[in-house]
What we know:
2 copies of one chain form a homodimer.
Chain A: H1 4-11, H2 15-23, H3 30-42, E1 57-62, H4 73-87, E2 91-96, H5 99-104, H6 107-114, E3 119-122, H7 129-133, E4 141-144, E5 154-159, H8 161-174, E6 180-184, H9 190-205, E7 215-217, H10 224-234, E8 239-242, H11 245-257, E9 267-272, E10 285-288, H12 291-306, E11 311-316, E12 319-321
Amino acid sequence: MATIKDIANRLGVSVSTVSKGLNGASDISDELRQMVLDTAVEMGYSTKRSKKVENRKICIFVENMNYDTIDEFGYDLVLGFKQNAFRHKWSVDIIPITPAFQEEEKYDTFLLKNGYCGSFLMGLALHDAWMKQFENTTMPTILLDNAIPENPNVCYLGTDNYEGITLAVRHLVNLGHKKIAFLNGSLYSMVSDQRQEAFENAMESVSLPIEKDLMAYGYYVSDSAKYHVPGFLAAGATGIICGNDLIARGVMEECTKRGFKVPEDVSVIGFDDLPIAAAFDPPLTTIRQERNELGRCAYDILNSLIHHIPISKTLLRPKLIERESTARCSRS
Amino acid sequence: MATIKDIANRLGVSVSTVSKGLNGASDISDELRQMVLDTAVEMGYSTKRSKKVENRKICIFVENMNYDTIDEFGYDLVLGFKQNAFRHKWSVDIIPITPAFQEEEKYDTFLLKNGYCGSFLMGLALHDAWMKQFENTTMPTILLDNAIPENPNVCYLGTDNYEGITLAVRHLVNLGHKKIAFLNGSLYSMVSDQRQEAFENAMESVSLPIEKDLMAYGYYVSDSAKYHVPGFLAAGATGIICGNDLIARGVMEECTKRGFKVPEDVSVIGFDDLPIAAAFDPPLTTIRQERNELGRCAYDILNSLIHHIPISKTLLRPKLIERESTARCSRS
């Protein structure tokens, strides 16, 4: 690993200038400081993993995800992470980010500049600029729902999507459903790929055909129900599994609008178990993601990475929550 | 979850008798005590997850694995687990087990009877009697290299075999090898399945053919080299990837005996990086499993399960350790 002296040699400046740049001293220019930081990152210098409490700073980056109120997906994740981190005397900053921000500032440089020992990232997409940088980052990094091969500083954390979708299919099959539709999330996402594979395998394992007319990608947009539910119903669907709870609400509304009752004519299953899912009409059967536990776990793994335990992947169990949007199939 | 009263009702005995049975009091018969414990387990009673230090007992079960000396695979696993557990004021017992022992005593009953709050199991095979019981155990349970679907009390911990074998294939391909053989571990094992799939995918991804003559199962027995190496060499193998370091030693000896020099004529890669691998002649290139870190991690996850974080799977990164048993391919 590069030392401060290596960085000084590369830049042709003194060790104390590099040290000032890394420590955010006020008596060097912003420009020189940025140069020191970028060079440090390029050369693989990483912040000392100090045990001093005053240096115990970590952060959560959030993109494409709401977390301000208890109804929102990210709320319990942030809460669980903070609860666990505070208990171990870390300070935690929450930093909303955009694609533009990622283009402007390198990931490692940002952490180094701000004294963070590591981070937890929620909601990033495959095409985000930082995703490429994670392949070589030297910073302890936890990614929610995204995996990076071979870098021991990066860990993938998520819910076991495979088991979740299997639970959903089996629940409908046990209720006598045979025409089961799947309105997945976004195309080109690791989570959607896992769920698609799980859906097809679960259908095969109970000898049900995999029908193109009964599968679509809804991009986690409630509105997508409008485009896909008519086709599902025309193809004879009696059960519909959805990529999240909000899509499921859209699907239930669309079914009702077209004269199909939920659950008498069509059973609907969501994913996530947002607090609001129990208040839908009818209350939603769904696959629960344990978000508080995911947040607590994210801290635990980040702490492990900081202590050089190279965890690459941690999955949590999903849980089938049976409510009133699913019922025995009435059609033969 | 069943209460002490439920158990008393089922057995037609008093609550205090059940309590005595669960707590190991001396004034009830062994027979009655066993009956209380078996009924408690059957009804889903689980020990209170107490925070009192005097109850902080966990254990490691070991089967088919040596751990007494630093040379052996299990040594660092046990050490890492204990280091971490002791730091958090748990006592740890190491319990060697056999298939016969598992037939005699139910897993949950054993833990309940001995006051263990959870366990870490190393070296169990798919056909072991306890494997079936893990599907319904209420005890926090970490399995090294085995997975149980859907039970939130059981977690699979291991090295990412997929990434490990991919690193091995890519290393040989980068050295110009095209005829790459794979001497896998045991048939009917989850780890071997993962490695086999990884091997075939890695070969495909570099457009190399998958040849039946270049693949076999060696059952982690060094002697297996004798049976398979002649066939590999006859089929033109210039590189051989092995299921562990001891097989790799057998393979190197067999190559030498048949007039093939390692690494000049044949490159050999092991798996695990036992301490002894660096002392082989030539020193062995191998895929390292971070055993101390796996042990530390096993404690961390067990602690998470005890605190109701339903982790189903945790994988650690393997690492390619380049030594002298691999070299550029000399044949075209």
